[in-house]
Design brief:
40% helix; 13 strands
């Protein structure tokens, strides 16, 4: 049914408009009481083989919703009830900002992909923090918070900008991700250079420790497939030096290679990052490379081109402890998380694993 709706209605309607309508419907129905909990009970897998503990946090299943869907923490409870094991909100910046001019989100149905140049449109850390604080503990999913640089802030002030977001949002996060890999904020990807990135992450770590004096908030950094192998290795080595909890791999790509959508159509969409199925093989390779470099201690959250339980399973076997998707959810619909989790559980049992953790990295170098 969802496939028919997507082919005949949704793909013909501006992508950002439909996103707003669909997210509003999810919040209104799945986020409501008492309907929402009943829906959650049907859509949330209770299979114990999917449960795992990663960087000290209990995850009911390893499939998360990637940052970008809920930028402002308007609906994490509703999204968790759809069957996601965790929800990552953001990207949130210290300062509120409108993002880039519209249109800025486009579908490539032939490729099962999206192109976006959203530009970190969000309400800012001052507005998002109270929403996170107000979440009912009993209904709150495992929550990641993804933070980025405010567009108007000069690069030489980026550390202070990230520190402010960490200070405001860290107390409400089960883990935090520093995003330096979006292609849609000018100069942001320059921060992936280790000489710049290392002091930035050290400062965020200090800020989190000061803001949350209790249990340490896990800290990860998000990178892109567009990095050269030597740069991926450098980020991995830096993660070990700084004792980061892990790496999120990977963000969107600026590459347009290998797309089935006609080149003229893609060119007309303009600049932006490609997400979805075209990233799958490159993201898979990055996960394997990172696991070989990081060793078994640090967490990899895999994202990019995950559409099926088989996709998630391959990424786990390559070295990811957790997986995320955004584009797969857009193309798959509201019951998609349940289908992926069921497929993943069946694959784990087929190959004799007792848990997700047992399968992590079995194919890694």
């Amino acid at each position: 049914m969802y496939d028919l709706l997507f082919r005949h209605v949704l793909r013909r309607t501006p992508a950002e408009f439909i996103h707003g309508v669909a997210f509003g419907a999810i919040r209104g129905v799945v986020g409501s009481s008492p309907v929402g909990p009943r829906i959650g009970a049907r859509l949330t897998p209770a299979d114990p083989i999917l449960h795992s503990t990663v960087f000290g946090v209990d995850f009911p299943n390893p499939l998360g919703l990637a940052a970008g869907f809920d930028k402002n923490a308007h609906g994490p409870v509703a999204l968790g009830r759809l069957g996601f094991g965790f929800v990552e909100i953001g990207t949130v910046t210290a300062l509120a900002q409108p993002g880039n001019p519209k249109p800025r989100l486009f579908r490539l149905p032939e490729d099962k992909a999206l192109v976006n140049r959203m530009g970190f449109n969000n309400a800012g850390a001052d507005a998002v923090a109270p929403r996170l604080r107000a979440l009912p503990p009993a209904d709150r999913p495992v929550l990641g918070v993804n933070i980025g640089k405010s567009k108007i802030v000069d690069p030489d002030r980026a550390i202070d900008d990230y520190r402010r977001s960490a200070r405001l949002l860290g107390p409400h996060a089960d883990y935090m991700v520093v995003n330096v890999s979006s292609p849609n904020t000018p100069g942001l990807r320059d921060l992936q250079n280790v000489t710049v990135l290392e002091p930035l992450l050290a400062a965020v770590r200090d800020e989190l420790d000061a803001a949350v004096p209790g249990p340490r908030v896990p800290l990860l950094v998000k990178i892109t497939t567009d990095l050269a192998d030597d740069d991926i290795d450098a980020v991995a080595d830096m993660a070990v030096r700084l004792d980061l909890d892990g790496i999120v791999a990977t963000n969107t790509t600026t590459s347009r290679e290998g797309l089935r959508t006609p080149a003229a159509e893609v060119e007309a969409m303009g600049a932006g990052g490609v997400s979805g199925l075209p990233l799958a093989e490159a993201a898979q390779a990055v996960v394997g490379r990172l696991r070989g470099r990081l060793g078994p201690e640090r967490t990899i959250i895999a994202v990019g081109g995950i559409f099926t339980g088989e996709d998630a399973y391959r990424r786990i076997r390559a070295g990811a402890s957790l997986v995320q998707s955004y584009t797969g959810f857009i193309y798959g619909g509201g019951t998609w998380p349940l289908r992926v989790n069921r497929e993943l559980a069946a694959l784990l049992r087929r190959d004799g694993f007792a848990s997700v953790a047992d399968a992590v990295g079995v194919d890694a170098p």
